[in-house]
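thought: fold this chain, then report.
action: predict
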Amino acid sequence: MKRLIILLFILFMPNLILSLPDEYTRKFYEDLYVKLERDLENGTALEKINAIHYMASLRKFRFVRPLSRELLRSLDDPLYRKMAAFDPYVKSAIAHALGEIGRKEAIEPLTKALEIVNQIIEEERKKVEDQKTKAQQNRSPELFYERNEIAPALLSNEYIYPTSPDAAWSIADDFKKFIAIDPNDEWMQVRMKGYNYVNVAFFIIQAIGNIRSQDGLDAILPFLSHPYKDLRLVTTLALAQIGSLKALEALEKRYNEENDDQVKARIAFAILFNDNTRGQYYRALLGYLRHPDPKVRYDVASAFRELSFGEAYYELSDAFLVEDNPQVKKVLQQAIYNAYMDNLFPPNPILDTGPQRIWIQGYPYAPKENK
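observation:
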């Protein structure tokens, strides 16, 4: 009888023990969610950022509305925009989190925010142009820097200090009135990230692309011809993710009008990503493999890595042999492997996910230079 009791205890007790933590786990996460939402609404800038990063990683749908409210909060108020809690770095993190969650309900607040941010960018651009014109008329040596790209700007490797005297440093003007930077000051910590409203627009467009909803198409199409290159680049990828006939037509039209080779290469990828029968864009991408700018070659290598075209195997191998940039070379090696796998295992049209990621015995030999 004792043995039977012991046996029953051994069989059923683990289930009782394991069932207890479920309640504690649910309570822990529920308390965490409440804390994150409270920090997002009422916390300091650093508390907000921490909460936003948690929300982006957890991807809970309940966070869509709180994040949407916070994204639009005081975005159109010039005074509030100067506060650390409403800094472009915080707004960019919110847009990124909404894109990671990926709910269609976020499209409307994202498009509203994009409209406001675009107005801010235009106001800043016109202000700088007026200042430049006035300085030229007065023959002033004063230098004005337009924040026309995502920040922070890359600092020189030879410069040993955390801040750069370079006039092109994107946030230099914010700290000119201070003797030194206080690492414990919250406003300075956030501004040291160097984000501006081009960053915010970048992450909003990226989020709309990640959600992959046709509802956001009309809001981002005008940015395909935006004067700022970074916004044209991210819009191209967003249109590739949304994927529609209207997007394809807009991309083809812009390809014929675009003057920047990096943007043209990315547009060619976006078209092929949705319709791989457009041979002229495939040939254009192959030509950009020899481009003198490593940024263009990196984009093209990334495109072939994603497209996994088996027919490009030998062209990619040739490009690998003459490539001198280590980052581009690494991506080319990955593209070559995907091209090999595409030849070995053609993609399944039902899955439509590129090469089949299945194990094979051995790997293809990487191209090597002759000794």
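thought: worth noting. The longest helix spans residues 2-42.
final: tokens above.
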